[in-house]
Amino acid sequence: SGIPFNPADAGCNFEEGLCNFYQDQKDSPGWSRVKVKRNVYRTGDHTTGLGHYLLANTKFTSQPGYIGRLYGPTLPGNLQFCLRFYYALYGFFKMSGTLAVYIFEENHMVQEKIWSVLDSSKGVWTQAEISFKKPMPCKVVFVSWCKSFWDCGLVALDDVSLSLGSCQAADLLPPNPGECTFEKDECMFTQKKRGRGSWHRSRGQTPTSYTGPKGDHTTGVGYYMYIEASNMVYGQRAYLVSRPLRGTSGKLCLTFFYHMYGAGTGLLSVYLKKEGDDEDIPLWRRTGEQSISWLRGLIEYESDRNYQIIFEAIRGVSIRSDTAIDDVLFQAGPCLEVEEIQFSSGYPDSLNEIEF
Fold first, then answer.
1. Which pLDDT value is given to residue 123?
2. Is residue 142 part of a domain?
3. Model-level pTM?
4. Number of domains in the chain
5. How would you class 333 by CB atoms within 10 Å of its CB: exposed for 0-12, middle for 13-18, buried for 19 or more?
6. Domain range holding 95?
7. In this structure, how many other beta carbons lie within 10 angstroms of the beta carbon of residue 215?
8. What's the pLDDT score for residue 27?
9. Whole-number pLDDT of residue 302
10. Which residue intervals of the chain are DSSP H helices?
């Protein structure tokens, strides 16, 4: 009967290495595991914005048709699989075909293309998902391709995962009750008041150049919540308030992704409001421009009474201060990782007195 197949063994977020992926030594230079120093010009990895991912075509060769192949582990035959991964493309003139996925059947030495890029926004992490089933054992192969020396860019790959069943069936599962991706609506969140100074649910780029995300964090083509700074004045606040959540005796963990890019970016804060208390407890804060990419926020907190979580965004000094959040997840138990808590405020105290 052998060892049962675990789909988790066929995925990787590349934080600790290549997991069970490998490269053929003939295909130099191939894929490199990289970590980008976070700044406002370069996107970080998809997982947290601060970790590792794979980059192909980093060492240019003068041979046209340069190819880098990344092989996954052997998968058993006759099972239905759903493969999901995130990719980002940089520097190509023509995007189509620069990244493709093949299925390699070892018994027959046959490679069959099952997916390739047709078009893509430059530098945005985008999700792809592919359902496949093969009668014989096979491997997934990610292939990056430069058509010529003159049209060769970078291909980034991150967060590869494999699950049993087709992707459509996987999508029918109800979302985690404590999770909000903003794809269908604002989920568990409401606004104190709607108007010019409120949070907006949006997709794609925000209207003002040099601020805001290019796409959502979940898939690159979905929805997120953001404040539109050009509708607001300096110091104006927008509140996104969760529905009442059940208190518990142990630790709780909140994770979310935030996007703070723009020269005039203001403040993003997270507060805990316990039932019966007048004062909100500050849990987390970021001030000013952080990165051109989505970054992960991680907060561990406790509340033995019912409570609400409040996201507060304060508009900064210029219209280039759009601030966005996405993929909010509430979990029972302590956070598995720890993030340093920053309460640095680069603003004068007078800003805290402005109320709208």
1. 83
2. yes
3. 0.77
4. 2
5. exposed
6. 7-171
7. 21
8. 55
9. 94
10. 167-171
